[in-house]
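Narrative of activities, Objective 1.

The group set out to show that a structural description can be obtained from nothing but a protein's sequence at a throughput compatible with the screening campaign. Below is one input-output pair from the validation batch, recorded exactly as produced.
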Amino acid sequence: VADPKLGRAVYQTTCANCHKLFGSGGAIGPDLTGSGRHNLDYLLSNIVDPSAVVNKDFRMSVVRMADGRILNGLVMSQDEERVVLHTPKEQLTLMKSEIDELKLTTLSPMPEGMLQPLKPEQVRDLIAYLMSPGQVELP
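Output recorded for this entry:
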């Protein structure tokens, strides 16, 4: 039997760095609270193939810097002088004068294979938590 409480614990270590659910978590990816997460097909397709359909606000950008570094992340804002790039680990403010190329991709920053390191019961519990109508306690 699926346990949403155990699923929340899996969510905290697997998804919460990037996604918000029920008011807590990161803001790199979409807020999952209002998504179609009650639909199992929708949920699984977005987890298994995150780049299949990507909202334009959540497409990954690739930045080639003048010093040779390649950075990947979401462009949070930009003006004539700066680009604010949110990577999975940090938020960077880059000077446009130091950027050789900034390219928006059609890819999601969410990596494929997120479920692979999980045990079957962890996947079951995670899905139960993601589909739950409200917040549950941690185990």
